[in-house]
Amino acid sequence: MRSSNPVFSRRGFSRDNGYAQFNAQQPQAGGPAVGTQANPYGQAPAGNPYAQNPYAQQDLQYGAPQAPATTGRMTMDDVIMRTATTLGTLIVTAALTWALLPVDEANLNKSYGIAIGAGLVAMILGFVQAFKRKASPPLILAYAALEGVFLGVLSSIVDNYIASGAAMQAVLGTMAVFAAVLIAYKAGWIRVNRRFYGFVMAAAMGFILLMAVNLLFAVFGGGDGLGFRSGGLGILFGVIGILLGACFLALDFKQVEDGIAYGAPKDEAWLAAFGLTMTLVWIYMEFLRIIAILQGND
User: Fold this and answer.
1) How far, in Å, CA of 21 to CA of 14, rounded?
2) What pairs with residue 265 in β-bridges?
3) Which residues neighbour 57 within 8 Å (Cβ) at sequence distance 6 or greater?
4) pLDDT in tens, 208-240
5) For 266-297, what is each residue's pLDDT tens digit?
6) What is the mean pLDDT of residues 95-116?
7) How far apart are CA 15 and CA 73, in angstroms?
8) Distance between CA atoms of 57 and 52, rounded to whole angstroms?
9) Residue 235 Cα to chain centre, angstroms
């Protein structure tokens, strides 16, 4: 099952330099993934470390398989550390941008220009990484830094001229969603299966299509386009966006969990960090827009 995250949906985690997808369908403990595709990493899923695993069979000659830390396989600690580094870069850059590039009413258009420019370059870097065969830490950190500039300027504008305190409220909301989804996922309240994946993907495609149409009408027709991002409809679509972001997180957690179970290479933790960062930025932006609509004149 591939995540709906733009990074993971491109190819999932890779095996070395290849594009092989792991977990094409729901994996079963003690054997390869259901269907025709075997584990791309050559490692058996948790529950049966030697089932159809040529590397594990070789390990039998020398004793038990080596721990992930000594074999270059991805661990949860790797994912946590890479995610903390990526998000830390984004947060520090956003804070520095807010402090060093203060937004004033006379230069509001210039500030918008800086935000849009940084956002576009970050988007390009994101697409480049998404289509690369291997994770590139410098590219991922550059994306995070530019995304931080974009969010720093935009948050400053919203906080100072539209809704005071909006940035902190959006941060707290994003953290709450992340914690809630993680708890629900670990407790088994969210079942990530093919049906869940199909529903989320269909909903996400419909949402993005509507937002793209609204943007086109706003660019060429002026105003708020079709009104999907302002007023009552804006709040409704903002809530839908947050719910979709929560679903993305569940899919990303499943992708990371399966990557660890199947012995993904250690450097794939950077892709996990990249994808999770993109999802959290999505959720933050939706919260920021809702708060701006509720407290100000969007």
Assistant:
1) 7
2) 73
3) 50
4) 898 888 888 777 776 676 777 778 888 999 999
5) 989 999 999 999 999 999 999 999 999 998 75
6) 84
7) 11
8) 8
9) 22
